[in-house]
Request: fold
Amino acid sequence: MGKHRRASKAVRIATFAGVAGAAVAAPLLSATSASAASVSVWDRVAQCESSGNWSNHDTGGNGHYGGLQFSPSSWAAAGGLKYASRADYATKDQQIAVAEQLLKMQGPGAWQCAYAGPLTSGGPAPAVDTAGSGNAASAQTDAVKPAKPAAPAPTQHRHAPRHAAPAAPVQRGTGEYTVQAGDTLSKIAADHQVAGGWQKLFDLNKDVVKDANLIFPGQHLHLR
Reply:
């Protein structure tokens, strides 16, 4: 949401048949209000995400790297390439600096372990030093390994799902609002001033939304 990706935790985003689904780690967290978090908060998130291993080399085969488990696309989108080609090749401080940018872009919902910090909006800026060369030795070691087939580029820069997309067709519904990529129940409720917030929105659409943490573009939700 590697050792950090445990099946019991919430998935972040689902991609299937070329369609990206938007998921949230906690529906109460808005992706537009986050700003910063202290180093100690990021340490706790990393402990949950990767057992605190800032040099995590995708040991679980999930396509995510470093202490805060960046996918290559989210690492690039948040400016990580100025430090290293992958998160696990960057220093801890560099990873935190990139995480700060992703936090501003995506909000706490970009990490399924946001609750471990807790990672919330409006925290203090971390004291980090982004100088340094990161894990260059590890990068050279990995360079001699056979390359893995490139994964299809996701339509969103959030972390990819830890589980396969549902085999059954997604329920679309008949509501008046069509879910867009990047939406969450919390965001939709706030944007459309739904009385009762995301909980009410979830109750109104239980025939379509089976998990408050997982919605898909193209679903039609009732707002009232």
